[in-house]
Amino acid sequence: MANTIPAARPRVPHFSSGPCAKRPGWTLKALSDAALGRSHRAKVGKDKLKLAIDLTREVLQIPADYRIGIVPASDTGAVEMAMWSLLGARGVDMVAWESFGEGWVTDVAKQLKLADVRTFTAPYGELPNLKKVDTRNRDVVFTWNGTTSGVRVADASWIADDREGLTICDATSAAFAQKLDWQKLDVVTFSWQKVLGGEAAHGMIVLSPRAVERLLTYKPAWPLPKIFRMTSGGKLSEGIFAGETINTPSMLAVEDYLDALTWAKKVGGLDGLVKRADGNARVIAKFVRENDWIDFLAVKPKTRSNTSVCLRFTDPAVTALPAEAQAAFAKQVVSIIEKAGAGYDLGHYRDAPPGLRIWCGATVQSRDLKALLPWIAYAFAEAKASLGKKAA
């Protein structure tokens, strides 16, 4: 039987895991009030940056005594700022189960070269044994949601309430779509380009009072680049957490972030954003249940991401292929979909197992996901048919 081309396409075929789809209804007019051609240190610039911080606190329900700063270099810059400024005071447990977490392990072990480092890792699709992580006596660095694996921590119950160390959490693909347990987290980082569909280059760092105390009482043994410094003369640089950024931000990107935060409030704040992402993830879950040739990369349902949903092909004709051929098969599926204009940027991350990665964050509409799925089935059938032709 001939493979039938789907009749409809997504209205918005953008499923990239970063930068992600813009919020529904977005147009360039949303940026018309941007403070272009003005200094970010002028009152209009500082007011907008301070508003971005205040709205972030409101939407994410961040405690009043936690400080929020806008920092350079996206989430990567924020994580590096935290690690270079805070680690080394005590032993650190590094927890990783995908590409970015492994990158933080490399930086701590090979760049900072800390002496007392323990590493807890797991293969793609799984979590390490979190019970073995010493969250009471040691510092801990981990990602809340693995962007390249689609695996997240179910909650923060594994983190000790009476901890003496700090928890540093990369939450870039979790913030605004998953409930973060702020009382268990001392440093949280994320960027604008994920769940709210903002533009790249800017990161956010959130510090608990305990993290601030560490900054004020501990001086790293290594020199800190200017863009990592959060203290001056033994005091906290409070301006960073009031809109006085370390380097020059894009006021156009700031305006876009403000627009996204305003939209977030209109759809119900954090609860509304989580509901939208959860609903999107359920659309994918239904598709997986109905098709035996595809499955989640995440092994356990409770650890499956509701944002960066990663899938793998389970058809025996595909799994029997060598690793390189499986990767080529996945790329062929993605290519068929993209050439039809039915979905963009669906490929697995370069270091991840072959398959698909579909962004399901709050800015994605469920109707677009529902329109995408028949195209995945169509592209899979076309790619599988080509395997038989190659064999012949």
From TrEMBL:
The record's listing under Gene3D superfamilies reads:
Aspartate Aminotransferase, domain 1, Type I PLP-dependent aspartate aminotransferase-like (Major domain)
Which pathway features in its UniProt record?
A: Amino-acid biosynthesis; L-serine biosynthesis; L-serine from 3-phospho-D-glycerate: step 2/3
SUPFAM superfamilies per record: PLP-dependent transferases
EC numbers for this chain: 2.6.1.52
Q: What protein name applies here?
A: phosphoserine transaminase
What high-level taxonomic lineage is stated for the organism? Bacteria, Pseudomonadati, Pseudomonadota, Alphaproteobacteria, Hyphomicrobiales
Give the family per the record: Belongs to the class-V pyridoxal-phosphate-dependent aminotransferase family. SerC subfamily.
Under Gene Ontology molecular function, one entry of this record is:
O-phospho-L-serine:2-oxoglutarate aminotransferase activity
| Key words, A-Z | Amino-acid biosynthesis, Aminotransferase, Cytoplasm, Pyridoxal phosphate, Serine biosynthesis, Transferase
Give the cofactors, semicolon-separated.
pyridoxal 5'-phosphate
Its UniProt entry gives the catalysed reaction(s) as: O-phospho-L-serine + 2-oxoglutarate = 3-phosphooxypyruvate + L-glutamate
Q: Which InterPro entries match?
A: Pser_aminoTfrase (IPR022278), Pser_aminoTfrase_methanosarc (IPR006271), PyrdxlP-dep_Trfase (IPR015424), PyrdxlP-dep_Trfase_major (IPR015421), PyrdxlP-dep_Trfase_small (IPR015422)
Q: Does the keyword Lyase apply?
A: no
